[in-house]
Structure prediction request, 332 residues.
Amino acid sequence: MLSIVQAEDKHFETIYRLTNDNGLEVVVSPFGARLLSIHVPLEEGSRDIVASPADLAGQKAARYFGATIGPVAGRISQSYFEIDGEKFVTETNNNEHTLHSGSNGFDTRIWLAETYEKAGESGVIFKFTHEDGEDGFPGKVEASVTYSLDDNDNLKITYDATTDKPTLYNPTNHGYYNLTGSEANPIDEHFLQVNAKEVATTNPDVTTTGEKTAVEGTKFDFRTGKVIGQTQLDDPFILSHDQDFDLSLISPDEKVQLKVTTDAPAVVIYTTGTHEEGTPMKNGAMAVRGAIAIETQGIPGAEKFAAYGDITLRPEQAFHSETTYHIDYEKA
Ligand code: G6D
Prediction:
């Protein structure tokens, strides 16, 4: 079932609520093609597991929360890339690099919305045209991001894009989660499993080096799952894709599990820190470690290092990627 409601903050923005037959509800916004909430219908009441500022003003003040990031997520080191021998320069907004496509990234744009409903599923298709040369990226890119919710408690985000010139395309959803339902609670007692044997090696400034590091014996070894504890993460996990899911996050009370399955090569996992501390959120001020961002995508740095794959999109190709978030929970 799909309902279209005026934004609670009485702004021009219209937001979209998708509700399935189990009462699971997903709320999305055209501002940044953004995931605002996942309301999980527990016996004790509804629990919103998405960490996000309370309103549009908050989402503008604190970027990225739940938003679509693009055309290129992550860092483009030294703010340049080359395609077929031609050099392109993008905005420097993080040390000497471009983070999340600069200050006018996809998360800052208003996307056009189309809704649909069919048996057992409803969804919203967000569309946006990134013009040739915008923010330093070549090609007129017709991008879409589709959020769909089905009656088996699967939220699927589907990314599609075409371009009229060779360009880079590596989008993600920058969703932050706290399965306790409040960003005021640290995520330390969440149980995380990531099916990845390697991470992309990073420099101190979080750009990648072109190398890969085995997780064996390191803080990155979440292959069998463990409590996050005080582990700080801001790293691309290179997914093995050898199990029926790629990542699992379980709430401390074990009433909610988020299982992520993607066709993307990697997932960047980012645990919040002092940078986000105190940010006004839906359920109270953000604690120091109040949320974990799960960002499925191509490996950051692929525009520089062939070992990380290829994020070039050419006119003769069509970009397509799907990430499914399955929510398991104690049914009322
Ligand atoms: C920091 O390095 C991290 C990024 O990965 C994250 O996306 C951002 O904060 C919100 O720059």
